[in-house]
Amino acid sequence: MTIITDLVVLLAALLHGYFLILEMFLWDKPMGWKVFGHSKEHAATTKVLAANQGLYNGFIAAGLLVGLFQGAAGYDFKLFFLACVVVAGIYGAATASRKILFVQALPGAIGLLLVLFTGH
């Protein structure tokens, strides 16, 4: 069960690393326009805000990876950063797009429950 838990936590970390790349580097590129459903003009005016958002996603990914590398000693890191993922996902779903609930909050919630259940 610990391996499954670690894989779900890793998935959440990788997702947030992907969000970092999308928001910091691809926001104003065709892939960013497609993923986020915005125009070239909108992307140009919001690029700095998106990069800031991407940076925070990078911090979440880093925190989850630190928790993973610490093994059982990283329990508190995993709990804290997965809770952040869930809260951010719920807020994003309520304010930006319902899709965020499934892409971000659901994997985070599953990881959080698994960490709580396994104690790792």
Automatic annotation (TrEMBL):
InterPro entries per record: DUF1304 (IPR009732)
Record carries keyword Aminoacyl-tRNA synthetase: no
Keywords: Membrane, Transmembrane, Transmembrane helix
Signal peptide: none
Pfam families per record: DUF1304 (PF06993)
Transmembrane segments: 6-27, 48-69, 75-94, 101-119
Entry annotated with the keyword Transmembrane: yes
Protein name (Swiss-Prot/TrEMBL): DUF1304 domain-containing protein
Organism: Marinobacter halodurans
